[in-house]
Amino acid sequence: MNNNTAAASFRPVLGACTAERTSASPHNPRVSHVSHRGLHPRRLLGGVALAGALLGLVGCGAMSAQNPGSGLKPVNAVEIPPDARVMLKGADVVAYFSDGRFEQGQARFKSVYEGVTFHFASAGRKTRFDQSPAAFQPQFGGYCADGLVYAIPWGGDADTWKMIDGKLYIFGGQASKDAFELDEARNVALAQKYWADEVKGGNSFVQRARRLVFRVPHYKTGEELANAVAAAKARQ
Q1: Minimal CA–CA distance to 149: which of 111, 177, 107?
Q2: For the segment 154-164, what is each residue's pLDDT rounded down to a tens digit?
Q3: Which of 2, 5, 89, 134 sits at 20 to 30 Å (Cα–Cα) from 50?
Q4: Are 211 and 151 in contact (CB under 8 A)?
């Protein structure tokens, strides 16, 4: 299978919770035939194939960018030469806390923390970060918070976000944020549980492939989530 064929074969599982801003989702109804209560051997082999396709397509650069050898592993980071891993494609993480907004940082104002590079919009923001870098970390390594509800660390767009109890949560688009907010307290708890129990310190690509096949008991398809969001809005 060449890379183009592989991309076509698993593109339906990419989506709102991806950094690539693709159109489908980890909760996509087109892959809902995989049961979360049990797997036919063919499904298991399909999961292995999915993992192989993912690794083959993203290459070593993306693997390295998201999985530093530090306490921040894994992270929603990309390679922006000369830096091997830049958090949230260079978004200024301090801006969310100081100004309550998304703002793109600049490479000339940067700091490295736990092997991950952070960009800032000004020297003042960089100084503030350097004084207490742990305080400005996005939850779940900057991955889509709604994806973590299903133990899937995938993507997340820096311009779709929310502060909850003084902490920064990133989402993979408005649809993911809407779904998360259907039961925010429960979803925060689930995401925190899966991050602590399964994701933190592990390999992001292996975890994604595993949980796209061995789904959590409360898994919902994209269609189910969209219907739930629409019903909630209709009641308002």
Answers
A1: 177
A2: 989 999 999 99
A3: 89
A4: yes
SS3 163: strand
CA atoms within 13 A on the CB side of 10: 24
- Low-confidence residues in the chain, pLDDT < 70: 1-60
The helix/strand/coil state of 28 is coil
Torsions phi, psi of 174, nearest 5? -65, -35
3-state SS of 185-218 is: HHHHHHHHHHHHHHHCCCCHHHHHHHHHHCCCCC
Q: Is 65 exposed, middle or buried (0-12, 13-18, 19+ CB in 10 A)?
A: buried
Secondary structure of 72-134 in HEC code, one letter for each residue: CCCCCEEEECCEEEEEHHHECHHHHHHCCCCCECEEEEEEEECCEEEEECCHHHHHHHHHCHH
With residue 222 as reference, give the H or E element that holds it: helix 222-235
- The answer to whether residues 137 and 93 touch, using CB atoms and an 8 Å cutoff, is yes
The rounded distance, in Å, linking the Cα atoms of 26 and 14 is: 6
pLDDT tens digits, 172-210: 999 999 999 999 999 999 999 999 999 999 999 999 999
